[in-house]
Amino acid sequence: VPPPAQRVFESDDALGSVLAFLSAAERFCLRRASKRIKAIVMSPHHWRAVVCESKDPVGVGWATLPTSRLESLRFSSMLNWPTRSDFQLLCTSPRLIELDLAGANVPFTALKAAFEACGGTLRRLDMSRVTCGWLAFHSGHVARPIGMIALSELADLFRPLSGLRVLVARNADAESSDRGIKFSGLLQAVAEHCPVIEELAIGWESEFKSRQTPIHKTKFTGPCTAVPAAVLSAATLRSLTLAGYAMLEPRLLHLICTSAPQLAILDVCGCGRLSDFGIATAVQPIAQSLHSLNVRGTHFGDQAAQALAAGGANLLRLNASCTALTPDGLQRISQASS
Description:
Blueprint: H1 4-10, H2 12-19, H3 24-30, H4 35-41, E1 49-52, E2 72-75, H5 87-90, E3 98-100, H6 108-118, E4 124-126, E5 131-132, H7 136-139, E6 144-145, H8 151-158, E7 166-170, E8 175-178, E9 181-184, H9 185-193, E10 199-203, H10 229-232, E11 239-241, H11 250-259, E12 265-267, H12 276-283, E13 292-294, H13 302-310, E14 317-319, H14 327-337
Parallel strand pairs: 1-2, 2-3, 3-4, 4-7, 7-10, 10-11, 11-12, 12-13, 13-14
Antiparallel strand pairs: 5-6, 8-9
Helix pairs in contact: 8-9, 11-12, 12-13, 13-14
């Protein structure tokens, strides 16, 4: 009986399982080992999930690889070199369900082409820290956070994503101004073109971090003060994260909760303009559906706690650190949720 290590290499299924732990470029190199291994590597069955590593060599012929069944694609590092051909993979995957571009600097044309190619099937998208444009020392153009590109370009970008259900875009938004009204262009694009969104996580990873991008060092002067109602009134919206939007007003939080009373997860961490009374008024419509609430760094207090308790709160998780909540208020919520 051959040893276990040898039996692994004799089994096509076992070798296929090993491929799941290899990056795209590593698979590309492995196919040269033998005809048998090449046949296994080139089987579309083993290309349903791919990770592109920063160490992957330039010039991988993505178009020649069997990506017709690719469903999950993740780039593990920033893609900000014009000589790389990784962008080909974005446009040759018409069946993508999950796309993770966190930290990538992707040319707008490549990103638009990718969304047009897989928009019909894409359900989960991570655009955290995504920027558009090459680095300044390559082309003279500064890369911009995705939320800073023109509204017309954002509309073109999100138009194919009508079936998107989960969008994570932390550290990607930026403030725009139209006739003195500050708003989020990213939210506006989602509101207009993603009608079945279920989970939306934007804002910043931590309200205590400096809001600067690692590329062009442009400081965010202040998050949006107006949130489009369309994205909040989606009947499917269950989870909303607006962490770090320090200028978010209580009236807008009330609009959120009134338009989407089915919200189960709400994160307004660091939204320092949310008063105790404002939160109390806003959360009443979602008291019974709300399971997780993060109000760290707001003015959440006993008044809001009483409103949740009176509304039949059913909280499973509450983060109220750095707030004015007293033990009495916490007890009210606990008793209502038990």
